[in-house]
Amino acid sequence: MRWSGFQRRYAPYIFVSPFFILFLIFGLYPTLFSLYMSFQAWTPSDGWGRWKYVGLENYTFTLTDPMFWRSMWNTIWLGVFSGIPQHLIAIPLAFVIHMVLSRFKTFVTAVYFLPYITSSVAIALIFNTLFATNNGVINLVIAHLNTWPLLGALLPDQNINWFTSANIKYALALVVIWQFTGWNTLLYLSAIQAIPKDLYEAAAVDGATRAQQFRYITLPLLRPMMFFAVSLTIIGNMQLFEQPFVLLNGGASAATPGGQTATMYMYRTAFEWLEMGTAASIAWILFVFIGILTYLNNLIFGRAARGGD
Amino acid sequence: MARVSLGGWLLRIGGYTLLVLGGLLTIAPFYFMFVFATHQRSEIFGFPPPLWFGEHFLTNYQILLEKIPFWRAYWNNFYLALMTTVTSLFFCSLAGFGFAMYQFRWREQLFAVVMATLLVPAILNLIPFYLLIYQIGWINTPKALWVPAMAGALGIFLMRQYIISAIPRELVDAARIDGCSEFQIYWRIVLPLIRPALGTLGLITFIGSWNRFADVNVIMRTQETKTLPVVLRTLQGATDVEWGAIMAGTALLVAPLLLVFALAARQLMEGLTSGAVKS
Chain A contacts of B273, Cβ < 8 Å? Predict the structure, then answer.
């Protein structure tokens, strides 16, 4: 075979090979190795290679550990209460941006999007100061709103200590909502902009109000994007780590039991208690759990999103 | 007719009010970050908390220099982001070109593998990844962080999409007839034509690497090798936490990104959503 034909035939394999080489070494191999490790007992001071086979012990330990279930519950609670509001705010927000803005559309969207490109550690550190119990900005705003009619009745009279086991979840949820609503708004806005204008025009000719247009045109056509955005939220929320890690001071906070997520529990098992085998088993349990969740999401909403009525 | 325009008018006023309020809520934490960066700890948690800039930025900056190797960490951050970005631009565009412009056996299956890696929750790889880096003795070396990130799946996907839409196959065929080798086609024809997409991917990669925390935190164990987010976090563990200094460091961490974002917000947002809208 001539050189030009030869290189044309094999060039694409060479071009795509760096990804696969890196994936095999840094993705697939460690993943499989951690499956092996999840059946061993090992701590770094034992020295490399000196692990001990313990069968299913790591798995039974994790699955009977109340702290694991507590962190799973925290993760699911945060997933729901920081996830759902993001979408409930983002969809109408995207619709309003699309409807009332023209010249400043990019600017306004960019403002809302800003938290998404900001380091989660930076965000958590900032909110750490804003959530201060005495004279924290957020508590002062709540105290001020407390003097308003109606709204005041709903709010507590005293300063909230956000860093207790019972309250930290609400603080974490607020941070996550603040950080990711703009991202979802951007996703929904791009989907809304892709809806052909003549659909709205035809509906307006038939006498549909703006609200009706939103209900009967925008919402149904947003379904595929809703499925996509919700999938991203599920995957993201189940692995929430940096925000709780920083707000809980790496686990040294009094609020840790109520705010520790599953990934943070995994991290502490590995790097605080140095139980690598147990940590590997936690990673695998979480992996299977997220897999099932994604599958269910696909089963329940995915078909409706793609087939749609 | 009058009722419709009144309704439209109300929608507009309500919409603007909502957007301005939401915008203020979004901006407020950034504003307080910059304000707190110029105040001492006692002022930040005093009553009333500072709402305007103070005079202690340099004091805070001095504390930062004393407690942590600040500029060393800043450089580590920049080095990590730069190496990841440069290598990603090359390897992702090369792979994107391969997937976009060639017919070859197993192409669809291989591309499916690339996309599947996007669905695997990254943090679950933390323990296995640490074990591997430990095994090969790369703990405390920067390459442990950027070498594995040289050819990310998102970058390959974005490059492939752009090359399919922007480069006519005839152009590639013509270059081949003119005697270009396959790599020359990529280097001389394709690369110059995909500059806008390279810019977008560069931005996404740089910002992502700049903000990395979880894996850096376990791989980099010494103060000299830590990046800025990791080293800032260590300040939080002390008693009498210097929140003014932490906010000054945080502001210096966030400021470059705000600047980049101010210049290229549209490009960045379009790049990040392009995949979502098409799929």
Answer: 186-187, 190
